[in-house]
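Sample 1 of the test manifest.
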Amino acid sequence: MAKSEYQKKIRDIYRFIEDNLYFNRPDFHIKGKRFNSTMLLTLLTGLIKGKELIIGEPGLGKTTSAEYVSSLLYQCPLGVIWGSEVPGHPEQTEEKIIGRPDLGKLNRGIEDVVWSNFTQLPVKIVDEINRLPETKQSMILDGVDRGHWEYLNEMIINEEYCLFATANYQDRGTNTIIAPLIDRFDIILESKHPGPNLSFMIGDNHKEHMLRNSVYEKKLEKILKSKDTYEKKLPQMEKICNEFGEYLRSELGIEAVNKDERQRISSDIRRLEFDLDASAFTIMLITELSFCHKYGQKRSHEGCEEGCHYTGYLCHEIKNCASNRLPSSIRSYSQAIAWFMDADEVDIEDVRTIVPYTIAHRIQWKEDHLMRKERNRRNDPLQLYLAKEVVNDVFHRYSEQKEEVKQALSTGFRILNGEELEPVNGDHPVYEEIKNDLISLGDVGDDERYG
Amino acid sequence: MKRGNEESITRALNEIWPRVKKKHLFPQIPTPVVGENDEAVAIEMKDKQIILNQRVCEKLAEEMPREDVIEALLDHGTSHYTYCPWDLSTHLFLYSETKQVIKDPEMVKRVTGYFMDIVGNTYCVKEKGTKIPELYKYLERQSHTFQRTELDKVISSLYQRIWGVNLDVSGYNDLSGRLSRIPYLDKDRWSKSIKSFARIIRPLLESEKEKTAGDGNSQNTMGDHGLSGYSEEEIEDGLREFAGKTGNPEEFKEMVSDFEDELKDLGFGETGGMGRGHGESIDADLLFYMKLAEHFNIPIQKIPMEKSGSMHPHSHTPWEVGRPFQDIDIWTSFGKIIPGITQVWNKREGEIFGEMEGTPDCIIVIDSSGSMVNPTKNLSYAVLGAGCASDAYLRSDSRVAVYNFSDAAAGGKQLLDFSRNRKEVYGTLCRYFGGGTNLKLKDLEVLRRKSKTDIFIITDMQITNLEKVIDYFSEIDNRVTAVYIGRHNRYAKRFEEATQKRKNIALYNVDKKEDIPSIVLGKIKEYFRMAS
Amino acid sequence: MKNPFVRFKDYESCKREIPLDGIIRSKDIVIDKLVAGYENIVEEEVKSLVWVVERSRLMETYSKAKEVISDLEYTAEDIEEFCYELDSNERLPYLITGPSGIYISALCNHAKETEITLKLNELKRKMHLIGYQLPEGKRLIVEGDMGNFIGTRLEGGELIIEGCVKDWVGAGMRKGKITVRKYAGYHTAEWMMDGEIWVEGKIRGIGKIINGKVYEMGKPANPSYSSSPSYEGYIR
């Protein structure tokens, strides 16, 4: 299949869901095209094995958007997906989430594990993750991070997987998702109210039935519950999924994506390179999210110094430091959006559009900043609004200094390569960070490096 | 035919726009559109949308490839969103700097517009690779058609000099020589640059004004730069930033009055939370303090969580030999007592919400006697401080009543009953009476009895019936925050002595007026912590 | 370790040089030199709490100013911009009105142009001693109101002030012509040796004139030439 055929296929899926299943307003603009952020980013999450947190008011389609996308991307009947979902509540146990001992065998003194559908299916949906205790949240995110699930002494490895977790806004019945856990989500997005007109259309049809088929659901359930090893089950599951895919094509006229195609798409996405502006802008952004002139880097327990020269930058407004997961989230989602738009490389628009969704949940804002902005007129939840605003600010700084920043980075390369040059100076922390690298990486002999 | 032309320009526009967007690093503005008006203005900007004038585009396309015309116009328009002014705050900053040199608002608008054009165009020429020079060359060649003024020609002569391209303009060497010394692309020097620019072109503007006194019609071919180019959110932000930057109600008022028509078109000026809506003239004093107060925020402590004392099962952990049996969850242990399979409940103490205290309503008592600063003339820290305190209560969904007084006994007072309407609150805070200082406690008592309320009083303490005020505050059990402005005087000393044993009264002294916003806010923070 | 900047290895800036860059660069160099020269002049003067206008002090400061600027190349626009730099107080921490006026005068007197126009209408402060020792063959036009001692010891040049002047205009002028478009203050033409002073508005007071002519609103104003006693009212 030609390269752009895959994009067409994914766009068709997007259009199919938009026309038939999930009605919402476009709120995501890229390359002159308009999309609904929840649907588009959920599709991309499914393609790149991402981890997505969907927030929103109860009943506004947080879970359903993920269910529809998963069903079509993984050729999986909706009923099976429902059966694999983990509902978040405080009494949730490891046995219901991951697996349990085979009780028959256990009574005979044999340890064997019956794996949950959640662990066996590539699509993993956790409903209201913030209602789970932290230990359970951590357990799920650990499993998804590594792609393997352990119970007793047994383990299964998922070849492909993605996670969609939903969360209601903070209320009295919810636990918070603690910072180290929330950092593991690649992106956050809000499933918004579609407006009264679209909303009124939602009740028109029993749309979820479109993606249901009791025959394939039963067949898949049977395989999932069988005593075969997980490795043996995988080709059987794939066969049924392909049959369901064929059913979707013939009955609904929509082509779902099979495993080979998903793998091909994933590798195509990973191959896309960042252009220079996209790279330099990302570096500039990460600098502002991690830099501290006084203490070397941001640390949650260390505040800014009064009258710091870098008061006008993002580092001054935030408490915590960007984690190393952030660049990887930015990279993979920017590549995915560039791929989706059929581009040959990732440009600054891709990065700029994606970044707010990757940082909104990760940044811990200072109280002052939050209070200054919380009452502003906006269309997004506060965290996402703030993230979009700062990305805009950083972009402004970048567009003013782009040539100088790229020159500074290029000069950095040449200095480390042994040329006798002076590092470029400028009024942004990025120049400081380049110098820090030149000091720590430059002119180091092997003895010093390893000694 | 016209329709056909419009379609073909739109087609070309749609083809060129992605290229221009990429060149300018993908600005977040909507795809430009083609419109039509009879003016000789090539480009208009409305709510971040670039609108190309079809008639002018067609005229320009007679001598230049149409694609080049469109690209040049798009480069020009886009540079205003990506470089200068970038946002309304910068636009207003440039405007206010020019205002220091030229007083006539229309002239100031023109100077600001031309300056932003020069900066934007020069930025494109230097960094983007653009057809803008060709466009200007043609505009000059057809100067009559495009109603080019002498000032336009001077600017073209300047372009010729600073871009190093021949635009077929001759003369104006002295003016363009002076103008060419301005560092247009150095943002840090824009403040000085625009003033120099204004100084140099002022005589031209004045003579133009005399010439066009009859028809009053001097258009910038590349479009005017009004507020309509910005989105509503940007205008809100821009006004807030400008209020913070200037800190001067007179200057703010002048700016609002210069842009009054445009602001009214955008809905500022009537009742409503942010002073928005069509109708009467904009109360600039009120808008100034509302916008300035948005720079300062007072956090109010949330309702505290308390431990309930009872334990509830929270999560599971594996049971280990030696651990007590009573916490074993038999259901998840499948009836087995085997390490690794058997699980126990971890229990946690429950949290409940503490006794509901919430944030009470507040009566803001503000002194506007003759010894206080007139808030319409100079920055009044009393109004600002009171505004910030009001905002803190309003943000917590509480209500605010205002008692503005000078010589209340002689009628120098204005009362606002408990309200959640921010504009009404600021309207009452900004009222200035002058004259003596006498508080009518009966009025205060009427308000106090209406609600469980805090009292915030801001004054210089030179109140003629101070003893009565002290007695009154000593008798009530409401939380009172008293802030007095100015040096420590005998009245304040008396108040302090009389109230220091009262736990519900906190008195704060502000030595320097300049420190009031932060010090008052800091003190209020303490107050809230103490109180909640 | 991998070079973290490798992605930017082949980067070359696409920023192009335009004539504006050169103009600004060379202008900034000139202004920097003018500022440095001024700092040199006031280095000593700043130690005095009060700068008293004395003949010897004026001469001394002027000769130092001449020495400082002898190698500088500048234009009338540079002088004008320097005046605004002085006025803004951003780069120069102090403006000592006496030496600054002498320094500006020295700059005008030694500029290449024979006719210089300074548009100083927007200055927040009044400049003093402008036109000091303006030599023959030079024409200095100043737009805006000026301070004291304008055209002091004029040496034959033509000084035109497009505004008002304060006191001591033309004090000790040797020859040449001063025109003031609006009003002049007290001690106008004090110790004037020769030449002409034309004040198109009113003069608040005329000083002791040794020689030369003073005109007020187009009419002779020297007490000795006066045919009208009305001038007495202006002499304090």
